[in-house]
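User: Please predict structures.

Assistant: First:
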Amino acid sequence: MATKIKTNKKPGKGGKIALGIFAALLLIIIITACLGMINASLLRIRRAEVVLPDLPRGFDGKTLLYASDIDIFGINTPTRMGILFNQLQSLHPDLLVLGGDYNSTSLLDKLNRTENSSDNTAHILKSRSDFFHYISAFQAPLGKYGIANTEDIQWQSLREAMEANGIKPLINEKTDIHSNGDTLWLVGICGKISSLNDAGKAFSHNDSVLVFAEGPDVLPILLTSEAKDDGSWADMVLCGHTHGGQIRLFGKSILSLSNAERRFLFGWNTQSGIPILTSQGIGCEGINMRLGTEPEVWLITLRSA
């Protein structure tokens, strides 16, 4: 009589435990990913009041809305950003400054090495142009300004898109604004420009100058450069680019960050008496997910001493 052999054995106790552990880990990963995506979509409005000794009385009480790292891609569409800025209009800022990094490349495109393809470039240029069009109606009595990031492609095209929609480019340049007869200078620093050491030579130490930098990498040189009559020339520095680390686990970020970016990862710092803000930005790099960080914009009230 032939012997029957059963091949559909049920997993033993050890197998059931392993299967349970795997299922629990998978559930934790799914829940964490969902929470990360939800967190990335909830924008925080931060408020700060900053006293600047050189600020002219004509600008006392004026408000500045600072929005960096828009990072349009995936679910973070130009239309969604247009709706967001329409909601931010309720803050009634006197001044709007965009901190660069207007598009991001998805992780999938990076893995497939299609981030530099002609189709992807065309998509980036169109979505960027659409974004500026959607926020063209935003009202800011003292003006709307935007800097660039080294990751923002085709700066000339970026400049044209800004200007066509009422946003003044500050791409390694300066401009002055006026209120009640007083003057305030705005300076945009985009990338590691070779002339940064001499950036302060256009100002005296008594001028009131707000600097908008691409990211913290420029801070070591910026903070040691001097005005034409010696001394510091920048009164406040606002920058982005770090995303606060975007996904931080156990105090470590998944992003590759420089020493300066790790030192000025997010929030306010003071160096040589100069208040410095590193914003965590609105969008994300590569994947629309945040853990341990929060998307944010800053509404800053300027105060004279």
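Second:
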Amino acid sequence: MVPWTVLAGKTVPAAADTWGISGPTFLWLYLFAGLLAAAYGFTQRTRIVDATSAAPIAADALTPAETAMLFDNRRPVLAALAQLRGYQLIDSTGAPTRTPTEAENAALEPISRSLLGHLHTSPRRHMMQLALATGGEVRNLRRTLAKRGYMIGARQLRGFLLAALPLGAVLLLGLIRVIAGLANHKPVLYLVLAMIVLVILAGLVMRPSRLTRRGRLAAADAVRRFGHLRPGNRPAYSSYGPDSGSLAIALFGAAALWSLDPGLAGATGTLAGGSSGSDGSGSSCSTGGGDSGGSSCGGSSCGSSCGGGGGCGG
């Protein structure tokens, strides 16, 4: 049956429901589909982030440079600098002092060897130049840690994108309904608001993250086990071995380099107020703390205000 209305003394047919589905009915179905898509997306994201967390983490699983990479991209360079200083291969200005022995060269991390090669051939010792010179090694570190399940890599990012596809499909359906509703002169305000919420949820599902849960656990465990190297404790790094300064910087950032060798920190332009990380993560490893999927997407209510075509969805 076609509804009729009276307009200017004339009886005219009212616009039929878009697609034969009333606005309130479509909106409730749309919200249900959106909640299902969001639940799937966050569940998949959590599965990806937690994929390797059950595997045991050995106490010596990560080298200082690998540990540093868990926190930010510049800290491995600082850790390498400290390792070279710990082995007395550079002085407090960053200038090389000697060639490492065969045993020392084997003990150095790849990024430390790369950095030493740069210091032998270039007088440029500011952190910006050192980061550029070791960029390839830093990228290798990230790829290696992603393969070992500590960091989010390209494969996991693709997984986040796939997890958000159902939300994308629901959003596309909503867009088509909005266009059809406007063409049919139906109010669509509540549907548009619901779509905005779904866009936010899709962004949360796809958002890049630095560490997997395994990586966060490893970083937190290292900070706990090596808390004695914290700069505030004024440790004598030399008494803990040549790699202790490198590990302290990996865990506690640039402040540890200033504690270890203020001259070297100043010569390389290292900021005293924390890590020199380009991503500004400082000394925290709380990346992806919301990956538990505990997103609240409920509470969308239009109640009885949807009645009478109050803008629910055309």
